[in-house]
């Protein structure tokens, strides 16, 4: 069984990596405006990435460590990843957020992390927009991972919260919305509202694994 998790709004409760980084970089209003434009379909992920690359010119690895450790993570991420591993199953996170933040999820026991690739910190080179993920990439990455693990679509559970997860939820029917927006809840086959990932994970196992 493959478990595919989103990060922003799903593992990160009620926020995004970009917002948390921007609080630290004193450019929160600019990022809030950019995220609203993205949510309204006025920006692509690639243009968004180019804009935040400009705003985060002073960011370094020490700052990211601090931001990551102090971000509002949903409870029991490590417990879920440990249980997945002990059952011989596989976990991945797919996020459009920067790799320098998302890769730290491996501290929680996530087996693989797929994210948008930014230049090394502090930024000294331009961003390569071809390495910025889009919502459709969540489907492509999931397909490739399933093939590599010799698993079928029905042997996969998708966990997400918002419109960027819609392509994945249309592809993976075994899905669960976690603190989701209405656009995703209307598509999801299961819904969880709360602050404990293990509860959502148990709900998904009961629906998609134990009853299969």
Question: Topology of this protein?
Answer:
Blueprint: E1 2-5, H1 17-24, H2 28-39, H3 45-55, H4 61-69, H5 77-86, E2 90-98, H6 99-102, E3 112-116, H7 135-148, E4 156-160, H8 166-171, E5 175-178, H9 182-185, E6 191-192, H10 197-208
Parallel strand pairs: 1-2, 1-4, 2-3, 4-5, 5-6
Helix pairs in contact: 1-2, 1-4, 2-3
Find the structural class using helix and strand composition. Answer: alpha/beta
Q: How far apart are the termini?
A: 12 Å
Order of helices and strands: EHHHHHEHEHEHEHEH
The CATH class name of the domain at 2-13 and 73-208 reads Alpha Beta
CATH topology of the domain at 2-13 and 73-208: Rossmann fold
Low-pLDDT runs: none
Find the CATH superfamily of the domain at 2-13 and 73-208: HAD superfamily/HAD-like
User: Outline, from the CA principal axes?
Assistant: globular
Count up the helices.
10
The overall pLDDT average reads: 96
CATH architecture of the domain at 2-13 and 73-208: 3-Layer(aba) Sandwich
Strand content: 5-15%
Q: Cα-atom Rg, whole angstroms?
A: 17 Å
Helix fraction bin: 40-55%
Q: What about the largest sheet? A: 6 strands, parallel
Provide the spatial order of strands within the biggest beta sheet.
3-2-1-4-5-6
Would you report the number of β strands?
6
């Amino acid at each position: 069984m493959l478990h595919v998790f989103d990060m922003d709004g799903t593992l990160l409760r009620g926020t995004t990596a970009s917002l948390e980084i921007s609080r630290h970089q004193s450019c929160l209003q600019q990022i809030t405006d950019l995220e609203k434009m993205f949510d309204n379909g006025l920006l692509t992920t690639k243009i968004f990435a180019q804009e935040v690359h400009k705003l985060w010119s002073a960011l370094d690895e020490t700052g990211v460590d601090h931001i990551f450790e102090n971000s509002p993570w949903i409870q029991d991420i490590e417990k879920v990843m440990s249980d997945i591993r002990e059952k011989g199953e596989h976990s991945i996170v797919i996020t459009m957020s920067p790799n320098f933040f998302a890769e730290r999820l491996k501290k929680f026991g996530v087996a693989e992390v797929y994210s948008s690739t930014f230049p090394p910190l502090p930024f000294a080179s331009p961003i390569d927009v071809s390495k910025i993920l889009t919502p459709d990439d969540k489907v492509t990455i999931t397909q490739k991972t399933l093939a590599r693990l010799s698993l079928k679509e029905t042997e996969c559970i998708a966990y997400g919260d918002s419109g960027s997860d819609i392509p994945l939820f249309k592809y993976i029917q075994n899905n669960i919305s976690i603190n989701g927006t209405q656009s995703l809840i209307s598509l999801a086959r299961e819904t969880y509202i709360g602050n404990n990932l293990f509860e959502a994970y148990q709900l998904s196992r009961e629906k998609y694994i134990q009853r299969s």
